[in-house]
């Protein structure tokens, strides 16, 4: 048995000392190959007595297994070492920028419109569309703003060119989205709940006015709709839009030709250190105009004012975007400065919805 | 509309604090725009006494004064000539804001001597224009007391708050202070004072008569006047001058000031003629057109036919209801004055005023609507004031025409406030509010007062009641739910498509722009627009004169601005309406994208390259796919003239339905727009792809084959103008059942290709995928298909298999 121990010691030492796969293979052949020392010893088992074989057999098998295991372990270790060496050589500078991808953005106006639509959809308002070039009738007369009424002059209207011989009143660029009310009523009648977001135009350009801006109109008609419903609707909208349950609105009497009674609506706010905060404080800031749809406007839309009543309102979309996202200058909305678009824009996948919050 | 608190108190008996009055005004719809209250601006000024004054050691005109103040003795350097010992002065200590100088006083050193405040002049406190010296107070006021208290006692006018309110077009009555007072009284902030005058008795018949032409009676239902003889014109009494100045009007002469006073006091515009300058009587008539007149603003005006003029025997002397003539106006020398109080139709005035571009207080009031019944009364209010202050003798009243009868009534349904507004206001209170506003209530009928032309129906009564009661008290009530279940979808397929297109483009890396809908004519013309049909007749500038025919014009301008800022690589897009004509129906919704410069900034990976037509085409196809456009589209050419003729095309569904144009924009267009190109892009006609017909959400079953598909590659030598799509279509057509895909994977063209294959030739390499259906294909089956492909391609393109 001493010879087996010597054999074991010899080969295990050699395996540890082997430096590459070739040396390992030579050792394997020499030890456990067909003519290897261990294999030769095993052949001798046949010549032994059964008693001798009982002890020598297992001992030889154990020796063979042990040498095989050592060979396998050493082979794995050598492979690991080789891989490690290769990987070391494959070092790259991962501080380099990733492969460039263009990143797009959604304009704040589009984002805010989607937010508005999501909120009103939950109250059953659908989205109506008007046209931006509008007839004098739909922009004014049907909204109870007769010709030569001072209310018309307050609109700073853009008029479209009229060919000589065409006796129709010139078309206008819509001064408000309210014109869409009439189109919708004519087509669908009452009851109805719609909002109409879009571009509107006024001939005015200074620090806080651009000749084009965005507005959305709301219209809700049914039996028994009151100004109290209007207040609730607007308050709910503002609380959801600004994500602030404490928002309070205040109604003030005013005048719009298309509503009666009419109210301007203020939102509670503070101007601490020039920083506007909505939903707290003792100041009030005007945010929209609203009222109960004038019976003449209902009639112009083909809705019986004795049967249906309801509210309408108009709110500036650009203004909402400025208030919510702290965008300082209206004019920059239409300048397409890429630095601005990237800073104030939104990810394409950030589609507003109520479950995630607008 | 401006007025002062004391002017208000001419009509309203009230002790209400100013703040309450301001709140009520805004709350009732008379929105306060500005308040100038000297009590606030001058609150910090105190009274001092100059104990000692001596010449400044280093300045001849400065004096070093020791002044007793509420904070003890202060040293103040003063340059006023009247700064001397023994006078009571007004002191602004360090920290006090001086409105007339727009500075806050600090401690300073003037030529080496310290000064702890200033002594103020009237101008510095905006009390008057007086600036010859500092104020000297008489009556030995208490040192250290507040200057405003002194003013309250000695010069109450000086601390009279000025209030400016915005007037909505429905409230002409609030263009008179009395109308404003009436609202406040109805709100409970005071009691209306009577406005009675000692009756005017005419002692003679006026020399000047008035006739109204038959065709002008609609424009001038009534004209009243009195001739006042022997007046002494001159400066107005101080109170009148103060009030007019307080609201920004310049006192001119008493007779003129009287007319201005009543315009603001009771919304009653008047005119005064110097009777001695009139020849014959007055005739109210419609102009024939061409009549010339120099008005009181020194402007020369030519009347259009139909405008109403007041003429004497010589010609037009006044533009009715808008502005009087200079020749017959009153001056300091006027002795005999003819006072006019007339009622003009508001539309006549509005049209004439707009055409003549005259913005006068009279026009402003007449076109909104004055109180017709006050026409003769207003005349006598003015004549009474003239007689009282300027003397003279009044004629009998000249009255031509009749005061129009505006009597009308509407049903007062007191339940309507609850149902329309949602506020509980008792019937008694409703009646009280309306009565206080001048309405007469008779049973269930409410008769609006003659000064409220805006009240035209029952809804107006509700508005009046709610306004006076205050909408601030309104409590929200939830909007009834439309259904008990989950809300149904509300967007139309087109609305969803617009939103999808927008988000698809942003996802492709484009930045969304919102550009103006109007552009300059030159830019519009580059894109097929700029005609008169889309011209704005009153543009705000020549840069914004025409409705845009294309989104590219605005986007290219945006690109030019960004390039000017040093940003050379960009991807911009816009979704919006373009205008093919001037009618409402002529708008079309487009989605357009632009790519300029490189695909990305310089990078270490070598990914950067110039953008090209195929970037634009791929993005266009991605957007079309996102919005559900059909997969198989024709590629046609040419595109419109603003595209590069060789590097552009259209994606069409049939020959007429263009879904999209794409390619490189014409270099001339790019240059004209001031952009450094090349620029590639695409424009998708969002309304053109058909909307999906299927209502069901179910998709067709997915068919997959377990049999291995086979790819085969071919290279064809074709003429260089052969289009790849022709070749692919031919290849696919070779076996429509088994060939499921065909695509180009290489194009070999240019000089090397010519060298190999001959002049005018190129090579197109295509791969086809053959998908066996029910059995594995044998080599000979595949060869047969390949032969058919070669055959078809040769027939379609004249190409041959490359050897």
Automatic annotation (TrEMBL), chain A:
One protein family per Pfam: tRNA-synt_2d
Chain positions recorded as Mg(2+) binding sites: 260
Enzyme kind, highest EC tier: ligase
GO molecular function: ligase activity
CDD domains: PheRS_alpha_core
Catalytic activity: tRNA(Phe) + L-phenylalanine + ATP = L-phenylalanyl-tRNA(Phe) + AMP + diphosphate + H(+)
Top-rank taxon: Bacteria
Reported cofactor(s): Mg(2+)
PROSITE patterns given in the database record: AA_TRNA_LIGASE_II
Main location: cytoplasm
EC number per UniProt: 6.1.1.20
Location of the Aminoacyl-transfer RNA synthetases class-II family profile domain: 109-352
Record text on subunit structure and interactions: Tetramer of two alpha and two beta subunits.
Name assigned to this protein: Phenylalanine--tRNA ligase alpha subunit
Phylogenetic classification of the source organism: Bacteria, Pseudomonadati, Pseudomonadota, Alphaproteobacteria, Rhodobacterales
From TrEMBL, chain B:
Any one Gene Ontology molecular-function term assigned to this protein's record: ligase activity
Subcellular location per the Swiss-Prot or TrEMBL entry: Cytoplasm
Bound cofactor: record note: Binds 2 magnesium ions per tetramer.
Residues annotated as domain B5: 405-476
Domain TRNA-binding: 39-148
Domain FDX-ACB: 705-802
Enzyme Commission numbers on file: 6.1.1.20
Residues at which Mg(2+) binds: 454, 460, 463-464
Keywords for the protein's UniProt record, in alphabetical order: Aminoacyl-tRNA synthetase, ATP-binding, Cytoplasm, Ligase, Magnesium, Metal-binding, Nucleotide-binding, Protein biosynthesis, RNA-binding, tRNA-binding
Cofactor(s) of this protein: Mg(2+)
Catalytic activity: tRNA(Phe) + L-phenylalanine + ATP = L-phenylalanyl-tRNA(Phe) + AMP + diphosphate + H(+)
SUPFAM superfamilies, sorted: Anticodon-binding domain of PheRS, Class II aaRS and biotin synthetases, Nucleic acid-binding proteins, PheT/TilS domain, Putative DNA-binding domain
Database matches in InterPro entries: aa-tRNA-synth_II/BPL/LPL, B3/B4_tRNA-bd, DNA-bd_dom_put_sf, Fdx_antiC-bd, Fdx_antiC-bd_sf, NA-bd_OB-fold, Phe-tRNA-ligase_IIc_bsu, Phe-tRNA-ligase_IIc_bsu_bact
Keyword rRNA-binding: no
The protein's assembly and partners: Tetramer of two alpha and two beta subunits.
Family: Belongs to the phenylalanyl-tRNA synthetase beta subunit family. Type 1 subfamily.
Protein name in UniProt: Phenylalanine--tRNA ligase beta subunit
Native source organism of the sequence: Amylibacter marinus
Gene name of this polypeptide: pheT
């Amino acid at each position: 048995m001493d010879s087996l121990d010597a054999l074991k010691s010899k080969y295990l030492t050699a395996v540890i000392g082997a430096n590459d796969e070739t040396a390992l293979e030579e050792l394997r052949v020499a030890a456990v190959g067909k003519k290897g020392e261990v294999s030769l010893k095993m052949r001798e088992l046949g010549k032994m007595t059964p008693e001798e074989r009982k002890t020598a057999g297992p001992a030889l098998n154990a020796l063979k297994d042990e040498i095989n295991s050592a060979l396998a372990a050493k082979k794995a270790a050598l492979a690991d070492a080789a891989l490690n060496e290769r990987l070391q050589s494959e070092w790259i500078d991962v501080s380099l920028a990733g492969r460039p991808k263009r990143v797009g953005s959604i304009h704040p106006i589009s984002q805010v419109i989607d937010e508005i639509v999501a909120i009103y959809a939950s109250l059953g308002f659908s989205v109506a569309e008007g046209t931006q070039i509008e007839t004098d009738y739909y922009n004014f007369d049907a909204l109870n703003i007769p010709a030569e009424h001072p209310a018309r002059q307050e609109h700073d209207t853009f008029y479209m060119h009229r060919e000589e011989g065409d006796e129709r009143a010139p078309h206008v660029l819509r001064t408000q989205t309210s014109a869409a009310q009439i189109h919708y009523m004519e087509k669908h009648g009452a009851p109805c709940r719609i909002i109409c977001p879009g571009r509107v135009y006024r001939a005015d350009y200074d620090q806080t006015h651009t000749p084009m801006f965005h507005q959305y109109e709301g219209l809700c008609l049914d039996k028994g709709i009151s100004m109290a419903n209007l207040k609730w609707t607007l308050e709910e909208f503002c609380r959801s839009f600004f994500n602030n349950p404490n928002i309070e609105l205040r109604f003030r009497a005013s005048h719009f030709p298309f509503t009666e009674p009419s109210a301007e609506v203020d939102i509670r706010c503070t101007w601490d250190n020039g920083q506007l905060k909505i939903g707290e404080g003792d100041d009030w800031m005007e945010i929209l105009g609203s009222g109960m749809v004038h019976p003449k406007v209902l009639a112009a839309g083909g809705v019986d004012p004795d049967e249906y009543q309801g509210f309408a309102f108009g709110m500036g979309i650009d203004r909402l975007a400025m208030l919510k996202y702290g965008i300082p200058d209206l004019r920059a909305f239409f300048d397409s400065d890429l630095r601005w678009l990237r800073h104030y824009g939104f990810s394409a996948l950030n589609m507003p919805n109520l479950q995630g919050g607008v | 509309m401006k007025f002062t608190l004391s002017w208000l108190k001419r009509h309203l008996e009230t002790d209400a604090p100013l703040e309450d009055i301001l709140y009520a005004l805004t709350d009732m719809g008379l929105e306060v725009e500005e308040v100038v209250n000297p009590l606030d601006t001058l609150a910090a000024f105190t009274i001092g006494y100059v104990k000692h004054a001596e010449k400044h050691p280093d300045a001849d005109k400065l004096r070093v004064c020791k002044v007793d103040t509420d904070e003890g003795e202060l040293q103040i350097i003063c340059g006023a000539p009247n700064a001397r010992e023994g006078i009571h002065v007004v002191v602004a200590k360090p920290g006090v804001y001086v409105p007339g100088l727009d500075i806050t006083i600090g401690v300073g050193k003037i030529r080496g001597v310290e000064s702890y405040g200033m002594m103020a002049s009237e101008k510095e406190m905006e009390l008057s224009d007086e600036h010859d010296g500092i104020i000297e107070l008489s009556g030995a006021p208490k040192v250290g007391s507040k200057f405003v208290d002194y003013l309250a006692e000695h010069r109450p006018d000086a601390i009279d708050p000025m209030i400016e309110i915005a007037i909505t077009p429905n409230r002409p009555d609030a263009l008179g202070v009395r109308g404003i007072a009436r609202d406040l009284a109805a709100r409970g902030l005071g009691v209306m004072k009577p406005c009675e005058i000692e009756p005017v008795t005419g002692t003679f018949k006026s020399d000047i008569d008035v006739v109204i032409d038959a065709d002008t009676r609609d424009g001038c239902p009534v004209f009243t006047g009195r001739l006042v003889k022997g007046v002494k014109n001159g400066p107005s009494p101080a109170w009148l001058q103060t009030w007019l100045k307080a609201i920004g009007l310049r006192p001119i002469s008493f007779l003129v000031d009287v007319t201005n006073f009543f315009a603001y006091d009771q919304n009653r515009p008047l005119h005064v003629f110097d009777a001695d300058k009139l020849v014959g009587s007055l005739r109210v008539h419609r102009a024939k057109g061409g009549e010339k007149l120099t008005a009181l603003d020194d402007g020369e005006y030519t009347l259009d036919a139909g405008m109403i003029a007041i003429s004497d025997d010589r010609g037009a002397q006044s533009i009715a209801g808008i502005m009087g003539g200079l020749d017959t106006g009153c001056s300091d020398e006027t002795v005999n004055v003819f006072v006019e109080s007339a009622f003009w139709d508001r539309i006549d005035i509005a049209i004439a005023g707009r055409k003549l571009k005259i913005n006068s207080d009279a026009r402003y009031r007449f076109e909104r609507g004055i109180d017709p019944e006050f026409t003769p009364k207003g005349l006598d209010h003015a004549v009474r004031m003239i007689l009282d202050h300027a003397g003279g003798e009044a004629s009998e009243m000249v009255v031509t025409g009749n005061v129009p009868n505006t009597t009308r009534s509407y049903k007062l349904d007191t339940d309507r406030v609850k149902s329309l507004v949602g506020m509980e206001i008792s019937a008694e209170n409703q009646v009280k509010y309306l009565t206080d506003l001048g309405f007469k209530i008779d049973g269930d009928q409410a008769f609006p007062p003659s000064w409220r032309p805006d009240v035209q129906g029952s809804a107006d009564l509700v508005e009046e009641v709610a306004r006076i009661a205050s909408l601030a008290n309104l409590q929200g009530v939830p909007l009834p739910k439309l259904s008990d279940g989950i809300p149904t979808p509300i967007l139309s397929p087109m609305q969803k498509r617009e939103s999808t297109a927008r988000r698809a483009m942003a996802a492709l890396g484009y930045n969304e722009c919102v550009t103006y809908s109007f552009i300059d004519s030159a830019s519009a013309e580059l894109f097929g627009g700029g005609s008169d049909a889309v011209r704005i007749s009153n543009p705000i500038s020549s840069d914004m004169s025409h409705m845009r025919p294309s989104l590219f014009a605005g986007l290219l301008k945006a690109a030019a601005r960004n390039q000017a800022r040093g940003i050379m690589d960009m991807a911009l897009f816009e979704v919006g309406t373009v205008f093919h004509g001037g009618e409402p129906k002529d708008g079309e919704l487009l989605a357009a994208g632009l790519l300029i410069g490189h695909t990305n900034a310089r990078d270490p990976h070598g990914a950067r390259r110039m953008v090209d037509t195929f970037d634009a085409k791929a993005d266009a196809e991605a957007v079309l796919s996102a919005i559900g456009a059909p997969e198989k589209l024709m590629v046609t050419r040419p595109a419109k003239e603003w595209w590069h003729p060789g590097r552009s095309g259209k994606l069409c569904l049939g020959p007429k339905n263009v879904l999209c144009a794409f390619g490189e924009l014409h270099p001339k267009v790019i240059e004209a727009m001031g952009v450094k190109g090349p620029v590639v892009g695409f424009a998708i006609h969002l309304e053109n792809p058909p909307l999906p017909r299927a209502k069901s959400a179910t998709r067709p079953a997915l068919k997959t084959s377990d049999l291995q598909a086979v790819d085969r590659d071919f290279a064809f030598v074709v003429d260089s103008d052969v289009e790849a799509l022709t070749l692919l279509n031919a290849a696919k057509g070779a076996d429509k059942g088994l060939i499921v895909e065909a695509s180009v994977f290489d194009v070999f063209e240019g000089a090397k290709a010519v060298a190999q294959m001959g002049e005018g030739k190129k090579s197109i390499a295509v791969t086809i995928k053959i998908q066996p259906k029910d059995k594995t294909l044998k080599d000979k089956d595949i060869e047969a298909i390949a032969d058919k492909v070669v055959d078809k391609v040769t027939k379609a393109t004249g190409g041959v298999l490359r050897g």
